[in-house]
């Protein structure tokens, strides 16, 4: 039972395995392209943990990952978007303390 359903196609093993090089955060999180997002809200509705919301951006609203720590990341928002505005993107590794290199 080491295989995962298709819903997890965007999830990397490091996430499912628990430990990740990003301090416990998923290695990949959804990223919304505000230029493609129409604010339709389908990704918001598709997100089980309600990690996405619509946020004002000028005169319009665009989807925003307001709770990245709640993201599984299942990838449902990616598949729910009819405008190809959401992608799973690598999360930046946190600054892990100071390793020498003082300034
Ligand atoms: S990847 Fe899944 S949990 Fe994360 S924001 Fe998208 S729908 Fe929600
Ligand atoms: S489904 Fe796509 S277009 Fe609709 S709000 Fe989400 S990112 Fe924007």
TrEMBL record:
InterPro entries xrefs: 4Fe4S_Fe-S-bd (IPR017896), 4Fe4S_Fe_S_CS (IPR017900), Fe-S_Ferredoxin (IPR050572)
GO terms, molecular function: 4 iron, 4 sulfur cluster binding; metal ion binding
Organism: Ideonella livida
Basic and acidic residues compositional bias, start-end: 1-12
Span list, region Disordered: 1-27
Pfam families associated with the record: Fer4_7
Keywords carried by this UniProt record: 4Fe-4S, Iron, Iron-sulfur, Metal-binding
Signal peptide (UniProt feature, chain positions): none
Domain 4Fe-4S ferredoxin-type: 28-57, 61-91
Protein's recorded name: 4Fe-4S dicluster domain-containing protein
């Amino acid at each position: 039972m080491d295989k995962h359903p298709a819903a997890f196609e965007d999830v990397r093993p490091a996430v499912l395995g628990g430990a990740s090089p990003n301090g416990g955060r998923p290695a990949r999180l959804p990223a919304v392209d505000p230029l493609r997002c129409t604010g339709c809200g389908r990704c918001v509705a598709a997100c089980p943990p309600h990690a996405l919301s619509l946020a004002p951006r000028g005169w319009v609203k665009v989807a925003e990952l307001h709770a990245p720590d709640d993201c599984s990341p299942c990838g449902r928002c990616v598949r729910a978007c009819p405008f190809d505005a959401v992608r799973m993107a690598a999360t930046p590794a946190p600054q892990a303390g100071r390793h020498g290199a003082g300034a």
